[in-house]
Amino acid sequence: MDAIRTAVLIIATLATGLTAGVFGLYAHTVMRGLATTDDRTFVAAFQAMDRAILNPWFLGFGFMGALISSAVAAGTQIGRDALPWTLAALALYLVAFVTTFAVNLPLNDALKAAGDPDTIPDLAGVRRAFNEARWRTWNTVRAWTSTLAFAALCWSLVLDGRAM
């Protein structure tokens, strides 16, 4: 059981860390870079990145995997010192997860629904409707909560190792 508990905790930590990295990269690099582009470039680039991120590595192992493996890890830590930290990580990551579905994905989907940038008559209007400031603000929430979840899982690993 010790090996399974530790393996699940390692998987949760890796998946959460990778997802935190994606959200962080968008916060401090991608969106700042896109903010300096013209409307057509912004819409086309964001649509392309949104399509590209829908892959098994990010969605399966990272985004969904972080949530599932954190929940499983919490279940394996019942009665152990690492449980509060693992539960804190799960709660923090759940904020990032819910924020994604409540805010970021609807904005992404609306931008994709606008269609091919070469056929959009009002690219500036599509970009304004996307609401970059709102997307960035809530992505920052995702970046911080998932990074804090990663840190909590790292500490859970330390505590789990001490208990062995």
TrEMBL record:
The chain crosses the membrane at residues 7-27, 57-75, 82-103, 141-159. InterPro entries: Anthrone_oxy. Keywords: Membrane, Transmembrane, Transmembrane helix. It comes from the Bacteria. Pfam families: Anthrone_oxy (PF08592). The keyword Transmembrane helix applies. The keyword DNA repair does not apply. This is DUF1772 domain-containing protein. The lineage of its organism: Bacteria, Bacillati, Actinomycetota, Actinomycetes, Propionibacteriales.
